[in-house]
Design goal:
This protein is an alpha/beta fold. It contains eight helices and ten strands. The protein has helices spanning 34-43, 65-82, 102-115, 136-152, 160-163, 192-200, 203-207, 216-231, and strands at 11-12, 19-24, 47-52, 88-90, 119-123, 128-129, 132-133, 173-177, 184-187, 239-246. The chain has an eight-stranded mixed sheet with strand order 1-9-10-8-5-2-3-4, with helices on both faces. A two-stranded antiparallel ribbon has the order 6-7. Helix 2 packs antiparallel against helix 6 (192-200). This is LmbE family N-acetylglucosaminyl deacetylase. GO terms for molecular function: hydrolase activity, acting on carbon-nitrogen (but not peptide) bonds, in linear amides. Pfam families: PIG-L (PF02585).
Amino acid sequence: MDATAPAASLEPLTEDFSSVLCVVAHPDDIEYGTAAAVARWTAAGVTVTYFLLTRGEAGIDTMSPAEAGPVREAEERASAAVVGVDEVDFGDHRDGMVEYGLTLRRDIAREIRRRRPELVITGDYGTRFEGWLNQADHRAVGLACADAVADAGNRWIFPELVDEGFEPWHVGLLAFTGTMTPTHYVDVSDHVDVAVASLEAHTAYNSALPDTFPKPDQLVPMILEEGAKKVGAHGVSHALVLDVVNRRG
């Protein structure tokens, strides 16, 4: 058996949705691959919005959180614009100290009810993320998002959201990136360059990384090429792989 062959065939994601919400912990989380799919979807007329639970204020060692937070927020907005996203919202959780719990679930459920997406994308909440040790904020946000998708559809969970004017919303598809057990893929072979440009928009963050850390034009293609290897389909050179949960019933 060829050790490089995909363990199981992945299905192409059926892109019959018109709205997507990306929920992540930090500025730049979306840009490590997911932005390529976002570019594909916005080019096709899909509405994509971002919700980040922190401003990434603890992410630059040479810059205090008070200074870094506004810088990283601005860089995320610029990065989103590169791939056609102009609605970017932020929570008020502390970078590096995001805690799974009711407050986090409620904040995400509120955003789901407000945006009313057909597809919600978040990061995998396992201990491994694409083979690497998964960061604490990523785990908390991914798990809370999985639960908040259910919370958003139940008016008796967080009834205060109804009082705020946010009626329940049922999400049809939930997808996890960085998963060790993908089920589907998005062919992003034609959107690699714009995804690289999206990550390059994080100028201050990238400049503070060690010189040995791969540059965006190396890292993004590498991630998406690894995704394509898992797909193993002819003609797919770069792919975003996802673990997709169909909640349409």
